[in-house]
Amino acid sequence: MSEQVLVSPHINDALGYLQARMGVLNDMAGNLCKQHFDFVMAENKKKTWAEKSVLYAQPRARDNTLAVVWFVVRWYGSKAANTRRMQKKVIIKPKNKHGYTTATLVNKARHWEADMVIEVEQELIPIRREAALLAKAIGQLNQIIKAAKAGESR
C-alpha cells in the first residue's frame, strides 16, 4: 500500500504568513538597530576619539532565520593615507538565550550610551524569541511540503 501525504493549500498560506511575519520582525529589528546607530552617530560628533561608541548592532535574515548581533567596532590604518579600515568583532551571545547579558553589553558600551543599549537590547529579546519560534514552525511546514512532494514522485 502506498502512503500518500496530501498537502492542504492552507499549509502554503500558513507558510506565507509566517515568512511575512519574519520579514516584519526583521524590519522591526532593523529599525531598533538604526535607532541606536543614529543616536550614536549624533553623539559621536560631540565626543573625543576615546569617548566614541564602539558598539554596533545589526540584524541578519538568512533563509528562515533572523539573528540580531552586537559587534565591537575597531578602526585601524591611517585616515590621511586613505588606509583606514573598520574591523567588527562579534560579541558572543549566551547559548540557548534570546538576549545578551546586560553586564556584557554595559561593559563594552560607553557610559553615555549604556541606557540606550540596554533599552534596545530589551526590545530585541522578544523579537529574537518570536523569530526562533517562527523558524521552527517554518521548518516544520517545509518538511510537510517536502514529504508530500516525495510522496508524489513515488
Strand order of the largest sheet: 1-2-3
User: Which blocks of ≥5 consecutive residues have pLDDT under 50?
Assistant: none
Given helix and strand content, the structural type is alpha+beta
> What is the number of helical segments per DSSP (H or I, 4+ residues)?
3
Give the percentage of residues in beta strands: 15-25%
Q: Give the distance, in angstroms, between the N- and C-terminal Cα atoms.
A: 12 Å
Helical amount = 40-55%
Q: Sketch the major β-sheet.
A: 3 strands, antiparallel
What's the helix-strand series?
HEEEHH
Secondary structure: elements and pairs:
Layout: H1 9-44, E1 55-62, E2 65-76, E3 85-90, H2 102-108, H3 114-152
Antiparallel strand pairs: 1-2, 2-3
Helix pairs in contact: 1-3
